[in-house]
Amino acid sequence: MEFFLHDIAGFLDQDQILDDPTDLKLYETDATSLFPSKAKLVLLPNTVEELSKIIQSIHNYNDTKPAHKLSFLARGAGTGLSGGAIARSHSVIISMARFTKIINIDLENEVALVEAGVVNASLNKILKDSSLHFAPDPSSQQACTIGGNLAENAGGVHCFKYGVTSEHVLGMEFVNSDGELAYFGALNENLEFEPSAADIDISSLIVGSEGTFGIATKILLKLTPIPQSFITIQAAFASTQSCGKLVSDIVKQGFKPAALETVDNNAVKAINAAYNLGFSDDVKAVILIELDGEPGELQRERNQIKELIDSYSPVSVAETQDAVERLKLWKVRKGAAAAFGKIAPYWYLYDLVVPRSKIPNALHGLEKIADKYKLLLANILHAGDGNIHPNFLYDPDKEPDVVDRIHKASHEIMELCVSLDGTLSGEHGIGIEKQEYMSELFSDMDMKKMLMLREVFDPHYISNPDKIFPIRICRECHRDYDLEQFKS
Fold first, then answer.
1. Which tens digits make up the pLDDT trace of 265-281?
2. What is the DSSP string of 364-390?
3. Which of 27, 172, 186, 274 is the most exposed, fewest CB within 10 Å of its CB?
């Protein structure tokens, strides 16, 4: 490492190089604590030029020490939940914490150019006096970065209507695994919005690649008009089955709410206790429906959806068009993480997707798995998308074997998901967490073809390696890749 440290010391200041064990400890995990791993170093470049030089220095080191090859990964706020931003022992973390400039907001063309380290919510604070906003709103919105949203193709509570990150990225400045700059999509090398700049939408290919292609440094975002009006409806039910059927009915009848969220029994109990929300013991599930748009159309939709809600005999219904009251109704969903922290010091938040019609089957299966492994389970759902977030709340000091039980339960959750014609992840990514389950959905040949695509961007296999794909597949392909055999 001395050779590498000497090389980077030529262009980085000492405060940009973190190698103290205490500093490195802070980067061992992401927002889940189940996959700790320590990086070689953490580096904090100030500019794209410094970032490129870091990658070039990694190549210089690898040329001299091929048996001890270094790799790198970009890291934003570390709010991910699948281990994608956790370094393996041979990796250098390149922190994007200093890439925080909002370079340009073009209200006329409804676009914004930002650096990858800009916090999601910070952009919308800047836009608050305009008629536009950046629509993706993950639960970690107050901390997560735009670069992290891009890497994981993040969604949020309003993604049912407005879509996930890939639908809001128009272009990017990109540093590849050789340290070279490239410009994709509608962003040209002069950092100008050029709608006709590209015939092939490579930007969408990079979104969701979890940093395995390289590092996006500047991102051109589509801004969305803020709706004229909204109505937030909160309905509580005596059964999760009623919530599940109501969701299906709303979608079947052609409605497209901005948000369609569900919170199950244990989650309701936890949040109710934490914030004294006043739900009775009869409440086993709560659904949040948010409508937005033109006022007249909004009222028509509200009346029809209210009829559907009433047909399922809700325990209680509340609704508002007031911004302050809206936050109170959303507390049952957005206050979940803090409420869980009052019950247990740790929770493991899972991520799976099933067809909407099979949400009740999935919830029943999750309850059986939790009972089998004696785990406290609380479910939160982006119900409109069939995206279920089971939360296991636990305290390893009181139950030394609980992490092992969670890992076993996770395996059965993935089997359940696949058996219901679901998929492995809705918005958290594969990372380290789910790579062993990729073979449940994809053949070895499928995965090798995907790795061929990765190799186009990262032929040296040094950009966030050992993520997404099973290690066995990665090693086999990296050892004896014969591209010709897959071209047919």
1. 999 999 998 999 999 99
2. HHHHHHHHHTT-EEEEEEEGGGTEEEE
3. 274
